[in-house]
Amino acid sequence: MTKQFAVIGNPIEQSRSPELHHAFAAKTGVDLNYKKILAPLDGFEKTTKDFFVQGGVGMNVTVPFKEQAFALCDQLTERAKIAKAVNTLWMQDGKLFGDNTDGQGLVAAIQALGWNLANSRILILGAGGATRGVIYPLMQAGAKQIVIANRTLARAEQLVDDLKTAVPETELQTIALDQLSGEFDFVINATSASLTGDVLQLPETLVFHHAYEMAYGKSSSFLDQAQARQVPSTDGFGMLVGQAIEAFSIWNGVKPELKDFL
């Protein structure tokens, strides 16, 4: 029997999740159908419940519903609790389960490039939900220090306050976006600058050895500057594939190889 999956969001047309999950299914022999669902901004809960009532097995959640999905779940994974956002839903024993696979997707993508996260110093630009979702998996992968830079320093400080007990093995610090300096193994852009076309100016006082742009499919001043410095860099397509693989394996009990889809 064909298993039914979906991705829900608003807007949703841009989502590449169906093509990824169908590609994973072809590779692993899983019989599934995966569709896009455009939910009204005030209709997430009803649309989601209808999908599962009609026999849906699993659902991915994208913007702007990840926080609503978090609130809807009966059971949450540890990384979902820390992220306070859910991008992967499934029904089990009559309960709605939620996970956040974004951070693990980022870690898998970085590791697939052969970049070493063990004992690393990481600078993350931005203090929004995308940053919150990746800190715990980065700690699990061995990050020694994570510095969060944000235009509004108070927002970065609030995030560190929220998360420091959840990631005891990693030192969390903050810095204002216009005060960037120091040396890092990785700089990760989790701001919306590349989506909005804003320019992120990386000062000469900031030294870094790898650059990861979470967005994909857009030109990025962040990546342009990394390339000008001849620093190894990439956009977020690997993270997109990695988070999808993680969701696919939760639902289907089989894990495709990331390198086969990059």
TrEMBL record:
GO (cellular component) term, any one: cytosol
Segments forming domain Quinate/shikimate 5-dehydrogenase/glutamyl-tRNA reductase: 114-194
Taxonomy, superkingdom: Bacteria
Keyword Lipid biosynthesis: no
Gene3D superfamilies per UniProt: Leucine Dehydrogenase, chain A, domain 1 (3.40.50.10860), NAD(P)-binding Rossmann-like Domain (3.40.50.720)
Binding of shikimate, residues: S15, R16, S17, T62, N87, D102, Y212, Q243
UniProtKB keywords: Amino-acid biosynthesis, Aromatic amino acid biosynthesis, Coiled coil, NADP, Oxidoreductase
Residues reported in the UniProt entry to bind NADP(+): E78, G126, A127, G128, G129, A130, N150, R151, T152, L153, A154, R155, G236
Domain Shikimate dehydrogenase substrate binding N-terminal: 7-89
Chain coiled-coil ranges: 146-173
PANTHER family documented for this protein: BIFUNCTIONAL 3-DEHYDROQUINATE DEHYDRATASE_SHIKIMATE DEHYDROGENASE, CHLOROPLASTIC, SHIKIMATE DEHYDROGENASE
Described purpose of this protein according to its UniProt entry: Involved in the biosynthesis of the chorismate, which leads to the biosynthesis of aromatic amino acids. Catalyzes the reversible NADPH linked reduction of 3-dehydroshikimate (DHSA) to yield shikimate (SA).
Family: Belongs to the shikimate dehydrogenase family.
Entry protein name: Shikimate dehydrogenase (NADP(+))
Native source species: Acinetobacter parvus DSM 16617 = CIP 108168
